[in-house]
């Protein structure tokens, strides 16, 4: 088992590992415990009660975070002709067809999202073993296989992210940076929880959201009360009002 350094151990000691914090408390703690010199990402990990071996209990979709991710999202688009020009004008970082597929086969994966027009899917399909494990395979269910490539590029650039359950029924999502203020992170967190509740499969049985954990890139995990799914933003407003009154 890997050993953590003294700084990490000291930070971890400030987190009650048995306590389930309210969302606003957890986000406040994540920011307070930031220890890296770079701007760390803030991640949320939600363990669901879904049985992902059943097709009707798998969870996958996209969400546009209200405050984005705080980073430049690199977009690769598979398209030809007018659609390729539309993608370039919309701000895509890499645009191509067979030539782009060849680059990826040779090891190029320096992009965050891949988008394709339907006619390019026979070419993109060959890249499944490369893009699939990285979560970058274009998929019509999440809007990354589309003729409206300009809209897809613009949405991805503005903070639209894909989510899906992994093999252990956990959803992992980035909700911003530690440089975001608490309200921005709280708004992104609330958007994620609301989306997961909205997208709950009809076949789901038992407790849906089992555990929720928030952590920064280099920080310890902080448990969040999974039953706290309503009026999350109201909680933040109450905290802000109390702080203003005390000032």
From TrEMBL:
Keywords for the protein's UniProt record, in alphabetical order: Repressor, Ribonucleoprotein, Ribosomal protein, RNA-binding, rRNA-binding, Translation regulation, tRNA-binding
Alphabetized SUPFAM superfamilies for the sequence: Ribosomal protein L1
GO terms for MF: rRNA binding; structural constituent of ribosome; tRNA binding
Protein name: Large ribosomal subunit protein uL1
Family: Belongs to the universal ribosomal protein uL1 family.
InterPro entries in alphabetical order: Ribosom_uL1_bac-type, Ribosomal_uL1, Ribosomal_uL1-like, Ribosomal_uL1/biogenesis, Ribosomal_uL1_3-a/b-sand
GO BP of this protein: regulation of translation; translation
Subunit structure: Part of the 50S ribosomal subunit.
Membrane spanning residue stretches: none
Species whose genome carries this gene: Baekduia soli
Domain of life: Bacteria
A Pfam family hit: Ribosomal_L1
Function: Protein L1 is also a translational repressor protein, it controls the translation of the L11 operon by binding to its mRNA. Binds directly to 23S rRNA. The L1 stalk is quite mobile in the ribosome, and is involved in E site tRNA release.
Cellular component GO terms held in the UniProt record: large ribosomal subunit
